[in-house]
Amino acid sequence: MVPIFQVGDEIVAEWLAGGKRAGNVMGLSSMFADAASMKAGRLIDRNPFEKLGISRGKGRRDQQPPSEQEAWEIIACARRVSCPSFAAWLQVAAFTGMRPGELDALRWERIDFARERIVVAEQFNAATRKFDTPKNHQRREAPLTAHARTALEGLARESEFCFVSLRGEHWTPSSRAYHWKAVRAAATRAPGRREPRAPALRAPRQEPRARPDRRCVRDPRGREPSQAEPIISVFVSAAEPLLRNTYVRQK
To answer: What gap in Å lies between CA 180 and CA 240, rounded to an integer?
Structure first.
């Protein structure tokens, strides 16, 4: 193990040899920049990972989100194979652009139906399993569009949270995973449909395995849900752009 102040150009060059570790450069550069800051006490003189000229790649920036028709097809599948709360969750996500954690933490008191605005003041953090401020640490407002309003007005107010499972708890990534798997399978098996794809997907922290809510999900293949089936904790297809700060394309 090498002390941080001894990491120089030669060690960095050796570590990067082969090109398999280029994806870690951004995180290491940030760490070494913090170590070189005045706040940290200038632990190092310079950041050896700075300005290496390594391309970050295009990522998924060229991929397009689903069209409005595709979004409605996904929501329709959710209404068939999942519970009303999850279908409404997807619909509000599609037509407000709110992030998944922000929707999980959405409370009725944050919705101003008169002004047609949603106050986004907190999110559920999957890593800490606690509520904290949104991604940019700033309170903001999202538009309460007509389709989002319709979805919310169709829900029973059984909790302080807008979207809850049949257990009465707000959604989390692990509790949503089984429902999304059923919706994804139904959308893929629709006539003429190919596997839904998701642009702009950020890899979130994996959640521990959660027992599926058998009362809520119907398997689109006609089988009873089985705990032996894998439960995904990362959304990997069609609705991801609906779950990000991205609106569906308007025709």
So the answer is: 10
